[in-house]
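subagent[fold] <- orchestrator: predict structure for attached chain, return tokens only, no commentary.
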Amino acid sequence: MERNNSLTILGGGLWGGLLAYRLRTRRPDVRFKLIEKEDAFGGNHTWSFHETDLAPEALRWIRPFVTRSWPGYHVDFPAYRKEVKAPYHTITAKKFNQILQSTLAPESYSLGKPVSAEDLRTDAGLVFDARNRCQFLAGGYQKFVGLEVRLREPHGLTLPVLMDAKVEQVDGYRFIYYLPFSHDTILVEDTRYSNLAHLDVEAVRDEVLELISSKGWVVEEVLREESGSLPIPYSSATYHEAKDTINLAGIFHDTTGYSLPDAVRVIDRIAASDLTFGAVEAIVSDYRFEREKNRGFFRTLNQLLFEAAIPDQRYRIFEHFYQLSPGLIERFYRGELGALDKVRIFVGKPPVPVNKAMQILLNSNNRWAVPT
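subagent[fold] -> orchestrator:
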């Protein structure tokens, strides 16, 4: 089949930007146009991942984007504090934008330009829609407001804290996420697993500043702010699709919301293909189907979290989870649980009311049962 050597990428966020970068560095023969409506790539986001989420080759090509790495991280719950010795990496939108603009040819992208009909003309070749155009039929939300601040004095943290749940439990499961970028700069993010999509950014921002102050830290400068309300689904999704367009939306870890590992895996497969519509459509649909093997399980966990657990006791689910084996935790984040892993997650004193849990498990449409 004839190779398509011209394509259009709509959206310069994580998926669109990484796809353009991978094509530029692996397939320089391919002509493409990356279109981003904002004045910089990546918006105002932070993407993190565990080193074991990616294969070694994938880790090598993504590494130029990494802003900061740590040899491990902490979790902090009412019952215990734990250090997890597993490398953890973070990419900021600022570094993401810098790498893309220094790597991509100027004629291969446009910034500050909304998508137009001209961009979608019939001779545009293969079109990728990386603008996150999908909607889940049911589920909860992961809501967050984060402030990256420069402090007057060192904060004293050497490792990230992925979950500090020793805070007041409001609006569902609430925890604080700390990313120490340097001795005096840190991202402090208030995250909530909530049944409601609404996020009062101003109110949560004030709570983040109060939390910072309660630690004795004095803010010299707020460097940036990020916020969002992401779906945590326990149902299937509907996609906004146009003819002859590949929609890259809705591929992420259903429970954690992490999107970078899935993006890297799919983009690697796309970049290795012949870039025809049929080949790429098969790659994306096959990956979605492949992930469904575990997605049903993760979506059932989500339903237990949002419908069975008492809101101010939801932290107990995560408190239970982090006492499991390091290998299981790695496989959970990677989205590759085995049959025994799934059984092990449910072993022990249930962190949700049994009657509610059994009702959800018996009535769930998600297919996650242990394969025979």
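orchestrator: received. Logging for downstream: Residues 368-372 have pLDDT under 50 and may be disordered. Residues 139-233 form a domain with the Alpha-Beta Plaits fold (CATH 3.30.70.1990).
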